[in-house]
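TA notes, week 10

Several of you asked for a full example with nothing omitted. So below is the full record: structure tokens for the whole chain, then the designed sequence directly under it. When grading your own attempts, check the secondary structure regions first.
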């Protein structure tokens, strides 16, 4: 589109003389060689709206040739209702008081292209000032923004103007964001421009709509989604090594309260930028102490910001934005505008979009209810299914007592039912004790094997050092070096297998109530095991205690604990 045509369009959006400051924006885009109309090639070209283009980007048009870029994040499982693979753990037991661990079923809004699963669709970057201006115009920004720097936008040129337009939109209220989303949706759905909907994902042919993401969607994507689940890193405090924090996030240590243009830091493994740091991001839900439960408050914001200390940066970090804040000095309520709080949009869809789609959901629900639902968080009261059965038996007791009081003639048969239930509970208790003991015994066996293999590795490392020194003197020791290296590779494989078994059993045992874990360990200690096994039981107890608190396995750290404990071990 010619520059003159763009300016004519801008005059319809930005009244009067406000348009004169927009000319340098258009000139800047052209001067940089960046198109002012959205393109949909894979990957698309770099623009101020997509500074780090990548394959898989989903580009939506905006007014004035602007664009907004989204990416898809596939959730595990298949079908609408999913399966146990869709249960994820949120929160961080080592974090703040509002980050308690909990399990939930993650779901996507749109079917995947292969028809086998579902996807979340989330904006690749934080919402920027340039995108807000494209939809709302300059006057709206100056009216809503609490940022004094926005008064200087009209006088900026070149790189300064570009950087200002690529800044996250902050200093606006939650209500202002909702107005923006409503206006943008109306523009997209203009019946005179069906081409604007071409890139919107659909459900049963019905296009989605723009909204804020839920906390669950946000955290799932920020943790790295399905690839992180498959790699076993989903529950980690950060989705990247802590030493790489500066590469991925603007925080207090490297930004000093100063926001930066979007996309300058490295993307996460799903291709999203600035989920950690820069501006903390509003979500769709009200802030509750336990994410889904407790007193509803203000707006939940996620991700930390340029004011968050590096030591506090974590994926589970949550905060409350008091959307309606009390000003004690003026004795009045005001809409909160925060210099470091912005937003990131998502594309959502209604649960039911058509009668045919509802019928399919209903058909699938029958199988889900009969089999899978009882294993999902909504169908469980405790993590361990045997413990759940015991709890469910307990809920029957007051019902029986009430029936006995109301029906004297039924007291004898109901008493018999009560006795059957008591015996069933005793058998369940025994089953839990025996199962916990068996798991602890298997974990200890893995631990003993792990300790032996690590000790052998330690000895082989010393042998290898000696062999390499001899090899420097004479080549006839080459065969010895190769033999030792081969043995070490075999041992590393064995170590990995035992560590994985140890990790899996600790995680399974961690689902039991603490009383059964303690009984299991005490039973094993009472058998007076040899010194190596006693040392393994000490480590196992520590690791079970850590898992119960953190709900996170840390196999590499556990391996190091075994290595240190059994270095030079005799016995």
């Amino acid at each position: 589109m010619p520059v003159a045509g763009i300016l004519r369009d801008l005059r319809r959006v930005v009244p009067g003389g406000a348009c004169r400051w927009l000319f340098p924006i258009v000139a800047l885009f052209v001067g940089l060689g960046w198109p002012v109309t959205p393109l949909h090639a894979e990957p698309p070209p770099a623009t101020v709206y997509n500074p780090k283009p990548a394959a898989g980007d989903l580009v939506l048009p905006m007014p004035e040739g602007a664009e907004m870029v989204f990416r898809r994040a596939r959730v595990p499982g298949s079908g609408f209702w999913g399966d146990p693979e869709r249960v994820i753990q949120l929160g961080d037991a080592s974090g703040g008081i509002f980050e308690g661990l909990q399990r939930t079923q993650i779901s996507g809004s749109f079917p995947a292209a292969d028809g086998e699963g579902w996807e979340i669709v989330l904006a690749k970057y934080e919402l920027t000032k340039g995108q807000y201006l494209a939809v709302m115009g300059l006057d709206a920004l100056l009216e809503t923004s609490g940022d004094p720097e926005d008064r200087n936008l009209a006088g900026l040129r070149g790189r300064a103007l570009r950087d200002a337009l690529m800044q996250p939109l902050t200093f606006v209220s939650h209500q202002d964001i909702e107005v923006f989303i409503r206006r943008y949706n109306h523009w997209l759905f203009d019946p005179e421009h069906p081409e604007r909907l071409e890139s919107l994902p659909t459900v049963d042919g019905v296009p989605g709509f723009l909204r804020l993401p839920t906390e669950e969607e946000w955290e799932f994507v920020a943790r790295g989604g399905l690839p992180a689940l498959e790699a076993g890193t989903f529950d980690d405090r950060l989705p990247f090594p802590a030493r790489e924090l500066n590469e991925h996030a603007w925080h207090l240590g490297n930004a000093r309260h100063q926001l930066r243009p979007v996309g300058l830091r490295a993307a996460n493994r799903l291709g999203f930028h600035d989920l950690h740091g820069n501006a903390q991001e509003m979500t769709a839900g009200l802030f509750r102490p336990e994410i889904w439960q407790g007193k509803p408050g203000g707006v939940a914001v996620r991700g930390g910001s340029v004011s968050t200390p590096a030591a506090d940066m974590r994926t589970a970090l949550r905060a409350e934005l008091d959307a309606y804040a009390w000003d004690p000095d003026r004795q009045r309520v005001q809409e909160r505008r925060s210099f470091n709080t912005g937003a990131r949009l998502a594309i959502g869809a209604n649960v039911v979009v058509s009668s045919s789609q509802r019928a399919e959901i209903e058909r699938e629900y029958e199988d889900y209810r009969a089999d899978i639902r009882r294993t999902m968080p909504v169908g469980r009261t405790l993590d361990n299914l045997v413990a759940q059965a015991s709890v469910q038996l307990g809920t029957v007791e007051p019902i029986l007592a009430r029936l006995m009081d109301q029906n004297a003639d039924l007291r004898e048969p109901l008493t018999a039912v009560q006795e059957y239930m008591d015996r069933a509970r005793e058998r369940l208790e025994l089953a839990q004790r025996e199962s916990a003991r068996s798991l602890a015994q298997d974990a200890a066996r893995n631990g003993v094997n792990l300790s032996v293999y690590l000790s052998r590795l330690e000895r082989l490392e010393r042998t290898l050092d000696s062999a390499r020194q001899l090899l420097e003197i004479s080549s006839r020791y080459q065969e010895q070096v190769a033999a030792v290296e081969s043995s070490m590779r075999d041992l590393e494989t064995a170590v990995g297998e035992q560590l994985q078994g140890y990790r899996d059993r600790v995680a399974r045992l961690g689902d039991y109530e603490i009383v059964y874990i303690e009984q299991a360990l005490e039973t094993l200690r009472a058998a007076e095991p040899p010194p190596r096994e006693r040392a393994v039981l000490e480590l196992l107890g520590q690791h079970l205690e850590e898992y119960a608190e953190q709900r996170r396995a840390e196999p590499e750290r556990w391996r190091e604990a075994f290595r240190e404990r059994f270095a030079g071990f005799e016995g």
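The longest helix spans residues 411-473. Use that as a sanity check on your answer.
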